[in-house]
Design brief:
455 residues, alpha/beta, Rossmann fold, six-stranded parallel sheet, five-stranded parallel sheet
Length: 455
């Protein structure tokens, strides 16, 4: 039984107990009509409570039988009072009612468990790792009903209007049961907790979840809205003002303000968030600090959990990948994860495209020794079309050539962790993937866009 339903049941039990005292008082004063009216209300309360328990706990719950006995006693007393009230022993009937209700209350405590409902609303399947370990814990809790409900999102035009809609429910791991967003009534369910990883609402220039799922609206449908960032950042301390300046925009997004709880990657990052948010609100009082300290929790990112839990020997490696990464003797070549970021393209434009061509040339010439696993940021296409349309055609041509030649791996799947665990080293832009890759202890090399053979 959900929290709100259990509160409703407890309220009914309290009202029935109070009604018993009032019935006793009416009988002692000879006010039979009012006593009969209250008995009817107790009967209705018993039926209502029984229906609620049957709906949430099943018709075999022991409390239902106790409620049936209670309603039968109410009926008997009502009939006795209606026939000849002078023959009714008030104290005896009051005691019987009280005994029945005590049995119901005890049975309710012993046989009706409080259940929690947790809803997870990812939008991009490739970002599911930011919620997965939390979902697993909820799913394994026998007192919790956990729902994974991927939500649609849209590419945006440069004027902010919506373009193409995406719905990636078919890209999640097979072990994750999916509920369709249009088959789950958030208002009717009113889950105890809703978890999100998209904090931007209408502030993202490239993509947007459906406005119904903006954090400002979701608050209406839950007791606790929890935001967990889809990214991890380079660790820093609250004293590093210069570095904080470059990341504070991550802290002041709608999801942070609207959430009841924000879970960040570390205690140091928690202190950074608290500092930025206090400064942004221009309130550095003790009360403000307590508010943000209670709201921001440095419990760690589920993305770290996912990397740690993924084992190379358990990976599902596509046959096409095996063709590229295996030598004739079936041993593996060195596999280099090549990551190209949105930030790199937006910062360097055509120069970044030249750098990519250079990288592909080097690895193509050395494909017998090492395999390149190229994993571009999943929103590069949407970003370029929206913000750098003049780059999109050239980028698409480079990508098309890479795919056509077939000597390297192109990974646009939702499974980032497979690429991290399978590869032997990281090469590419300085992005949040670097923070995850550090957990593996494998080499990390950051590309310098200024260095190309074509200069």
């Amino acid at each position: 039984m959900r929290k709100a339903q259990k509160q409703q049941a407890e309220t009914l039990l309290n009202q029935m107990e109070e009604a018993h005292d009032q019935i006793k008082e009416y009988l002692e004063k000879g006010n039979i009509p009012m006593a009969l009216e209250l008995l009817e209300e107790c009967q209705t309360g018993g039926f209502t409570l029984g229906t609620l328990i049957e709906k949430t706990e099943g018709e075999k719950n022991p409390v239902i039988a106790l409620l049936e006995e209670y309603c039968e006693l109410i009926y008997q007393i009502y009939e006795e009072l209606s026939a000849d009230s002078s023959k009714v022993n008030t104290n005896k009937r009051y005691k019987l009612l009280r005994q029945k209700l005590i049995k119901i209350e005890n049975g309710f405590r012993e046989n009706v468990a409080l259940r929690t409902e947790a809803v997870f609303l990812p939008y991009k399947a490739s970002m599911w790792d930011s919620l997965e370990s939390v979902w697993k814990a909820a799913d394994e809790d026998e007192t919790c009903d956990a729902y994974v409900i991927p939500i649609p999102y849209f590419d945006k035009n440069s004027d902010g209007s919506f373009r193409e809609m995406h719905y990636e429910a078919d890209q999640y791991p097979q072990y994750v049961p999916i509920t369709r967003y249009d088959a789950f009534d958030l208002e009717a369910h009113h889950p105890d907790m809703i978890f999100i990883h998209n904090p931007y609402d209408d502030m993202n220039l490239v993509t947007s979840v459906h406005p119904f799922f903006f954090s400002g609206n979701l608050k209406k449908f839950t007791d606790k809205l929890v935001y967990i960032p889809y990214f991890v950042l380079g660790e820093l301390k609250a004293s590093e003002d210069a570095r904080i300046e470059g990341m504070k925009h991550f802290c002041t997004v709608p999801g942070v303000y609207n959430a009841d709880q924000v879970i960040v990657q570390s205690e140091d990052m928690r202190q950074v968030y608290i500092k930025v948010l206090m400064e942004a609100s221009n309130d550095c009082s003790d009360a403000a600090r307590r508010y943000w300290e209670n709201k921001i929790l440095g419990l760690g990112s589920p993305k770290f959990d996912k990397v740690a839990a993924t084992k190379r020997e358990e990976l599902n490696i596509p046959k096409e990948w095996l063709r590229i990464i295996r030598r004739p003797d079936r041993s593996f070549k060195k596999i280099i994860l090549y990551n190209t970021s949105i930030a790199g393209l937006l910062a360097h434009n055509e120069k970044m495209l030249t750098k990519m061509e250079y990288v592909f040339c080097i690895f193509r010439e050395n494909q017998n020794e090492a395999s390149l696993l190229w994993r571009p940021h999943p929103l590069i296409e949407s970003t370029l079309i929206s913000m750098r349309p003049q780059l999109w055609e050239a980028y698409a041509a480079i990508r098309s050539q890479y795919l056509t030649e077939g000597w390297g791996i192109y990974d646009d799947s939702a499974d980032l962790d497979r690429a991290i665990v399978l590869s032997d080293a990281y090469y590419g832009d300085h992005s949040s993937i670097v923070q995850l890759y550090q957990q593996t202890g494998k080499p990390i090399m950051i590309q310098n866009v200024e260095i190309t053979e074509f200069d």
